[in-house]
Every structure is written in structure tokens, then in C-alpha cells.
Automatic annotation (TrEMBL):
Enzyme class: transferase
Name of the gene: hemC
EC numbers on record: 2.5.1.61
Residue intervals of the Porphobilinogen deaminase C-terminal domain: 234-311
Pathway linked to the protein: Porphyrin-containing compound metabolism; protoporphyrin-IX biosynthesis; coproporphyrinogen-III from 5-aminolevulinate: step 2/4
Keywords: Porphyrin biosynthesis, Transferase
Gene Ontology annotations for the cellular component aspect, listed alphabetically: cytoplasm
Molecular-function GO terms, alphabetical: hydroxymethylbilane synthase activity
Protein name listed in UniProt: Porphobilinogen deaminase
Length: 324
């Protein structure tokens, strides 16, 4: 008798469907079972308010998790950066697949880069759209430091909507995640890849989270075959930093853990973090380096260590949203 298809819960957006489709293919390969996508609408999809106003944390996740707990789906795929940092006891993060490019990118008019845009706007100050306080803080700080003048404009919407602001001439550019554009086949529209030395990504950006019920041990074990230990260690350190700062996922916090290698041998992990005011007038940006974490607790400790240093430098006073 053929086993029933596994039900994969996903948001309805083009990006969510694309990344869930990739995971579905991998799950079919490792389990030998068919996988069907179950589209679920989340609060974050229906609200027209900016994420900072509706409290960012969990708005794209809660409906999927509720469906898991009701048994309406067997597992869910999330953009990992959308996950609250506290993991519920009745759900398990079964897999964190290999990470896509974590960088932010610019889609600008006339094929311009960020520095070209600031120098060439015919209307004076270039208008750059983003819904992220984190991006606003770092772009404005970079502009200040380099004698450039920009205006960051809060926007919401899917990729089509955001890029549409540029195509219509309403904005000079928008900032998006490289990973999302790659997954939907639109990376060729990027006019500038923003260096992580200029803009640190959101904690977990570019990574996916595959979640299932904690009591479904057989499925959790099968999904675990998709896990990438280096990606999991990196995002665990980044999310530990976020949690220790007591910040929500829409707070102006950037973090990136990367591996430092000597030739082909991975030696250490470096974790960088930043918190800033959205006008870019004040940033707290620090980094720490340590052995590559071999356990969850070691990755968590790396994040907490850097958060403690950042709080000592005044990071707490720069965050508009604090977790409850």
C-alpha cells in the first residue's frame, strides 16, 4: 500500500511557494514519499501595516505552527529569519538546509549601484525603499560616513510590488534579500550586491527552517537528513545574539556568522552584530571569533557573548522594538 503524501505547509507568496517547492523535492528524495503543498495565509500576509507596527515577531509563522499542532499539515517550511527565537516545546526544528546567499541587494533604476545612485539622482536625494529598520539604519549610517545623502522610504509588499516602485519611477531603488530573488529566478534584476561590511543581514537571512511536531520522531529523523550542520551553527549563533538582545525580528539588528578557513580547513567562526538607530546617527557594531561550535550550546554561547559586549556599548537604547 502506498503511503499517504506528506503535507507541507507554506505561505502563499511566490517566494514561499518557490522555496517550499525546493524543500519538497529534497523530502521526496530522502523519504521516497510524495509531498503536497498546503497553502496557508498568515497574519503578516493580510495586514497592510509595516512589520515594526504589528510587532514583526511570528506574524508569518503562527498560522503555520497552529496548522502543525492541529495535525492539518505534517511539516512546515519557514524563512528562518521570520522565526521567533524561542522554540516551542511541542515543535522541533528538524532541519536547516544549506544557506543561500545571505546578502542584501539593490534593485535600482538605470542599473546603478548604491554609490552611483547617491551621486547621480536627477531629483536630488535618491529615495530608497525598504521595510526593514535594520537596512535603514545601516544604509543611512554608511551614507553619513561617506558624505552621501539618501532618503529611506518604508515600503511593504511582495517582490513584484517592491520592484514595481522602481520601474514606475516612484522610487530610485529598493533593497531586497539576494536569497529570495535567487529562489524565484530574478537575481539578474539586481544592480548591486551590498557587501556585508556595508549592511549586515538579518539573523538567519538566506536560511530556511523545516519544522514538524516534536512527537513525530520518525518524520523528524527523516527531515534531519536535509540539515546542514555549519548553517545550523551559524544561524543558531545569530539568533542567540538576537534573543540575548531581547529584540524582535523587525528590530534594527543585523548579524552574520561565517566560517574562517585556512585553505580547505575550517578554523574558526566569526560572528558580527550591529544595532542602530534608523536614521543611521548611531551604530553599535562588534564582532567576536571562536572555535567552530560543535554543539547547540556552544553556538548559543557565541551569540550571548557578543550580545553582552554590544549591550555594554549601549545597544539596548537603540532598538525600537523589545520582545515581551
Amino acid at each position: 500500500m502506498t503511503e499517504k503524501a506528506l503535507r507541507l505547509g507554506t505561505r502563499r507568496s511566490k517566494l514561499a511557494m518557490a522555496q517550499s517547492g525546493h524543500v519538497a523535492q529534497d523530502v521526496r528524495r530522502v523519504t521516497g514519499r510524495d509531498v503536497e503543498l498546503v497553502e496557508i495565509t498568515t497574519y503578516g500576509d493580510t495586514s497592510r501595516e509595516h512589520l515594526a507596527q504589528i510587532g514583526g515577531t511570528g506574524v508569518f509563522v503562527t498560522a503555520l505552527r497552529d496548522a502543525l499542532l492541529r495535525g492539518e499539515i505534517d511539516f512546515a517550511v519557514h524563512s528562518l529569519k521570520d522565526l521567533p527565537t524561542a522554540q516551542p516545546d511541542d515543535l522541533v526544528l528538524a532541519a536547516v538546509p544549506p544557506r543561500e546567499d545571505p546578502r542584501d541587494v539593490l534593485v535600482a533604476r538605470d542599473g546603478l549601484t548604491f554609490t552611483q545612485l547617491a551621486a547621480q539622482s536627477p531629483a536630488g536625494v535618491p529615495r530608497i525603499g525598504t521595510g526593514s529598520p535594520r537596512r535603514m539604519a545601516q544604509l543611512n549610517a554608511y551614507a553619513r560616513a561617506h558624505g552621501m545623502e539618501i532618503e529611506t522610504v518604508p515600503i511593504r509588499g511582495n517582490v513584484d510590488t517592491r520592484i514595481g516602485y522602481v520601474r514606475s519611477g516612484e522610487l530610485d531603488a529598493v533593497v531586497l534579500a539576494a536569497a529570495g530573488l535567487k529562489r524565484i529566478g530574478r537575481i539578474d534584476e539586481v544592480t548591486d550586491f551590498l557587501s556585508v561590511d556595508t549592511v549586515l543581514p538579518a539573523p538567519g537571512q538566506g536560511a530556511l527552517a523545516v519544522e514538524c511536531a516534536a512527537d513525530n520522531a520518525a518524520l523528524a529523523a527523516a527531515l534531519a537528513e536535509l540539515d546542514d550542520p555549519f548553517t545550523r551553527a551559524a544561524v543558531t549563533a545569530e539568533r542567540s545574539l538576537l534573543a540575548a538582545l531581547e529584540a524582535g525580528c523587525s528590530a534594527p539588528v543585523g548579524a552574520l556568522a561565517d566560517l574562517l578557513a585556512d585553505g580547505q580547513i575550517v578554523k574558526e567562526m566569526r560572528l558580527r552584530g550591529v544595532v542602530g538607530t534608523t536614521d543611521g546617527s548611531t551604530l553599535v557594531q562588534l564582532s567576536t571569533t571562536g572555535p567552530v561550535p560543535e554543539t547547540h550550546d556552544q553556538a548559543v554561547a557565541l551569540g550571548r557573548e557578543l550580545a553582552t559586549e554590544m549591550l555594554a556599548k549601549g545597544a539596548a537604547g537603540l532598538m525600537g522594538e523589545r520582545a515581551l
